[in-house]
Amino acid sequence: MVRAVAIGLDAASSVLIRRLVDEGRLPTLERCGAHRAAPVGFPWVYRAELAWTRALGAGDGDHRTAVQFDPSTYGVMSGTAGVITPFGIDTVAAPSLVFDVPHLALLERESIVHVVGWGAHSPLSSRAAHPAGLLDTIDRRFGPHPAVGVDDQPAWCDPPYRRALVDALIAGADRRVDVLEWLLARYPNTEILVTAFSELHSAGHALWHEVDDAHPLHPIAVAGGAAGDRGLVAVYEAVDRALGRLLDLLGEDPVVVLFSPQGMQSNGNDVAGQLLVPELLHRLQFGSEYLHDVRSQTVRADGLPLVPAQHQRLSDMLSRRRRPNKARRVLGAVRSSAGYLQKRENPCLERGRLVPVAPAEGAKVHLGVGYQVPVWYTPRWPFSEVFALPTFSDAHLRLNVCGREAYGVVPAGRYTAALGRLERTLTQCRNPRTGAPLFSSFHRTRSHADADGPPADLVARTLTVTDALTHPDVSRIGPYPYIRTGEHTEHGWFVRVPGHGPISTTRTVGSVPDLAAMGSAISRLLTIGVNPP
Question: Which of 41, 123, 323, 492 has the CB geometry, 3.0–4.6 Å to 261, for a possible disulfide?
């Protein structure tokens, strides 16, 4: 019998939850007290990469990020999931089921049934299961998640993809509970359940401009009817219904905790970190442009930001902006890692539905990041003082240091001075639409060049949502199309669901300062659930 449950709502915005609860649209989350949940703060640096691993129990010494960098070759690849036992459940010595939790590598523990990558957004690991063969059985019986592998396309501007994504996420939330019901029946001795709903994460990246009226693209979403009941709000409502089904299935016996390690907000960093800053550094250091600026496509006729034509892939537009002589050097690699660059129609769609990409259990997952624009600049990195790494949130910058990188040009003794010079350069950047500074803050990840730390030496946080920048030495760069309209915040939350388990109080758990404290609190609650006082 299940005695303790931790359910993650990946990237569920506490702000949007409160708004929708007030509108009566999320009855399950209202019953759970999610609109009164304890807030969790988390340092903004690497909030997209470290939130889940920190929440689940990784220590501060784990510098795991979404990108790995090899200073001997200047090679980059996606990061990998960590081998973390969530909330230390193996110390409780109770039979446990861990289903589809992001950023977890396969746990081959005798007491833990574990399924990785059934439908999680960015699992950072191969699809796998323990015991072996379980995931293949799930796929045959229920099918994969309808959006697995295709929920991260930069296609917010493509109405057919957007509609198909919403439909797939709604269906996926319901199918997720079907699988959990079957697993709990198959493993009736399960005492601890840890699982997560990833649908809100996927929808938030693609559809956040629908719900934020301050987003530059919000008028376009409203005019196109995208902000109605078949958009992001519909996915929140679907997850609310699926969560209600799961809680009804579990009954009132187990202690139940809901949590989200991170939130969602309008995306100010994708264009800045992946396009504007790499191009700025290239122009400042080499005196030439790499990405063309298309001056005639600055804004639409009504003054709104640049939006790709509906039939046109965003990445098609970007690839055509590369200078032809330089484009040839990298086009083959880009095509091999992102074949959709060669196609005008979205290959993820078939008859209006998404076609999930679900490798068989144990199949090796490609972890390349060649589709990201910063990788296009890699031939220049050995000759640069500083370059921009691929990123999934803020601008991540690395100095090319003598003795650390294979072809370093910055003397190690000038490391601190070079960082200061870089910060002053970025401080001069402005949002040309508003005149406001582009960056709000900087974070140095290490005190000196040879200190341990993540790949980036400096992380720069964008102040406003923008599609272009100006700098005194290079004039304007951009505008470029938005890649995703939503990005993560460092604001998470968690709540013990009232009326569940042997704890008599219906209070939410008190506010905690960070993810580590939240993880410890959840661990205690799970332990109490298995070993009631």
Answer: 492
